[in-house]
Every structure is written in structure tokens, then in C-alpha cells.
Amino acid sequence: MDNARGPTAGSPTLDEVARVAGVSRATASRAVNGGTKVSEHAQRAVDEAVRRLGYVPNRAARALVTRRTGSVAVVVPEPDDRVFSDPFFAGTLRAATRVLGEREVQLVLLLARPGAEEERMLRYLSAGHVDGALVVSHHRADRLAELLPDLGIPCVFGGRPWSGSDRVPYVDVDNVAGGRMATELLVERGCTRIGTIAGPEDMTAAIDRLAGFCQALEAAGLPTDRRAHGDFTEEGGRRAAEDLLDRHPDLDGLVVASDLMARGALAVAAARGLRVPDDLAVVGYDDLGVAETTDPPLTTVRQPINEMADRATRLLLDRIDGRDGGGPYRVVIPTTLVRRATA
């Protein structure tokens, strides 16, 4: 069903590809369009003919054969100002684009918060505009892990979903271990009045990091109630630090659930005359470029965003191609501690 002519008059045709490759037109069409009933020898011959002739397939006709759009959606249930200012999203999109580019698949970015925006996004996905969806930074209220499988569209989550994890695969970092690792460093340093600025209570990454914080303090016999919540932004970290230090001015250690929030907390500490790390030791979370630029440079937990996005995107492509068996796979990647000047 591939058109016989290329994109412009005089361009190589599929018939010419078949002639040069020494195969039938039907075999050439299947080989060009990714069909499965093509021998290895014939596929190599067609690939070589395509290269020699400079043949460009008609993608519209190819889509009719393969029922593929050649595009994948990255769904981010966040406001656009956060998406374009947080290095987490930049790293995720960069890694996903690189993997998709290897397969000549286009990335479509969908920003959708719960409500009318989410309904519009779900209508778009259900209309078959993309072959699959990669969901990142999801919240409890978005219910995407429950809704997307019902649309029949292949999907993978970057991060553990709140619910529906028995129906969708996900790739996550070990946030519980990361939160525990950050807190244990402060305990080993000799801090005894340790607080935390946790992330949003409706995100599993934040809840898991907080769980690790509590585990480490409980193991050390220290209280776990010195806490405030931010929204993973610098301003959110600033507000949470003001609140936490107002309530607990004697803090000597602080675990912050993102480097952006930690930068806001460091500004508050400086404004209050607290010396870091002498008066207040601080550990962040992410290591996506922000930690190296703070004053002083931030000790932090590195979460491998590039690896997470890479593996999630490849898993999605496998699901689209039917190569993963359709199971709800779970991949959890370990975190590491990066020591700098704040702890």
C-alpha cells in the first residue's frame, strides 16, 4: 500500500527499489514498512537498494499498513512554568528524545492537569494520534494509571504510580533508599536535631523519600516530626524552610527532597545567619546541575534521571512493538550520594 512515487516527481519509486533489490514489489513494501514476513537476505537487499537509490517512503501510506503514527506522547501533569524551569523535566525530555530519535519516532509533549485539561488530553490519546504514552511526574488526583489502560494505548510510567501499578509498567529510582541515605549521612555527622523539607504529599516520589528519612531517624532513636512540605520549586523550599525554622530554630541537620527546594532553604539559612554546614548541615536530592551552583555547593542524592527516562522510553517502544509480553514490569534504579560542602 506504499505509494509508488516518492515525495517529488522523479524520486525513486518502490518499483525501482524492488527491481534493484531483486525482490517482488510486495516484499519490498513489507521490508520498507517493517513487516515481519521478510527473510533476512531480502531485508538486507531492500535496505541496500533504499540506501543506493535514496528512496523516501510515503509515511502516510506506511501508517495505513502498520497502523502506526510514528509518534509517542510524553504526558506531564504539571503547569507549563514548572515543566520549563525544572531540570528534572529537561533531563527526562532530553533522554526520551534521544531514544525516540534512534527509531525515527516523534515526541509529542502533552501538559495536562486534572480537570478539563486532562479530559482533553485523554480524548487526544484515545483518538489514536500517538502510538503510546510515557507519563512522568504524576499526582494522586490524575488517576492516569487507572485511565490509560482502559484506552488500550501502550503506556509506561516514569515513577511509581499511586494506583494501577498492577496494570501499568513503571521505571523508578529507589527513593526510599535515597531518603534514608541522605538522613544517615547527617546522623553519622553527629546531627541530632534533623528536620526535612519533604515534597508534595500527593506524589509517590515525595512520600517514598520521606519514608526513608523516617526509617533512618527511627533506627537512630531520633524524632521524625521536624518536617514541612514544599512543591519541588525553589520558592516552595524557601517558604517551607521559613516555616520549619520558625518552629524548630535549633535544627542542626536538614534533608531536602529536591535540590531546587534546597537552594531556597540555603537562602533562608543565610538570611538568618546560619553557617552551612557548621550550624546547619544540608543534603538535597536530584544532582541535575543545581547542586553544583549553590553557595556552598550542595551535598545531594543523585537520581539517575537519564537512565530512568532511557529505560522507560525503551520499555514503551517494546510494548508498542509487542515485545515485552504485556506484563506490568517494575524497574527500580539505585541512587548514589554525592558529597559536597553542605554536609
TrEMBL record:
This is LacI family DNA-binding transcriptional regulator. GO terms for molecular function: DNA binding. Gene3D superfamilies: 3.40.50.2300, lambda repressor-like DNA-binding domains (1.10.260.40). InterPro entries: HTH_LacI, LacI/GalR-like_sensor, Lambda_DNA-bd_dom_sf, Peripla_BP_I. Pfam families: LacI, Peripla_BP_3. Keywords: DNA-binding, Transcription, Transcription regulation. The keyword Transcription regulation applies. It comes from the Bacteria. Residues 12-66 form the HTH lacI-type domain. It comes from Nocardioides aestuarii.
